[in-house]
Amino acid sequence: MEITAENAGYTLSIADKKTNAVAEKVYKKPMSLYVPSVANASVVELVACILPSETCTLTMTNNNNGVSVDKSFETQALLKFPPMAAEAVKDLINIVRGYDEEDDQNVCGW
Predict the structure, then answer these.
(1) 15 closest CA partner among 66, 79, 96
(2) Of 95, 1, 85, residue with least CA distance to 39
(3) Which of 54, 61, 69, 110 could form an SS bridge with 95, CB 3.0 to 4.6 Å?
(4) If you ran DSSP here, which 8-state letter would residue 95 be given?
């Protein structure tokens, strides 16, 4: 009997360090976040869900194995700058995928 694991996707989240507010979204096909306009739109959508703050953290988590990485930003305004947001998302995905490949884990969608 073949056992197949359900793709739990990746979660992209933003947390406000001052208020601890968190906004997140799950992506079943995270490779779409490699497209800069998609990554930027996703970050802008999440930033709009929390109040403006001085510092925030962008996090990417592989929901299949729990590998998670984050990056801190001095201001939310930095994440509203499209090239910055797209590059940050791509970097986080690549780091998570690197851990996945080392452990030979299911890398959802890849």
Answers:
(1) 79
(2) 85
(3) 69
(4) H
